[in-house]
Amino acid sequence: MITQKVRPDNGSREGKWVALTIAGILAISTLLLPYHQTESEHTEALAHQVLITDLEQEELAMIAELKLAHEEIRDLHIDEGQWPEISELEEFWVAPFVKDQS
Fold first, then answer.
1. Would residue 44 count as lying in a domain?
2. pLDDT below 50 — which residues of the chain?
3. Is the separation of the CB atoms in 94 and 72 below 8 Å?
4. Are 84 and 77 in contact (CB under 8 A)?
5. 0.70 cut: is pTM over it?
6. What is the pLDDT of residue 50?
7. What is the CA radius of gyration of the chain?
8. 17 in a domain, yes or no?
9. Fewer CB atoms near the end CB (10 Å): N or C, the chain?
10. Per the domain annotation, does 84 fall within a domain?
11. 96 vs 3: CA distance, rounded Å
């Protein structure tokens, strides 16, 4: 009678190869990532332009209000078919057309 030892296959060898493959892919991609970036042209601001990073908080708030006013005015134009008057904008409390403390 011949006896033979058979080891159970618990997948440890395959798991090690998968982990090594993943580590290799991550290492190669980490090394090659800087070479895969596109170069963007950095244009300087003209004399009449201002960078948004140079604005103060109050100016940024005014820009946000103007963007919202643009949306409101456009929606009123679409709904009514004509551009609203300033008095209508004051009635609808659309900033910056409202005369209040702020």
1. no
2. none
3. yes
4. yes
5. no
6. 87
7. 32
8. no
9. N
10. yes
11. 92
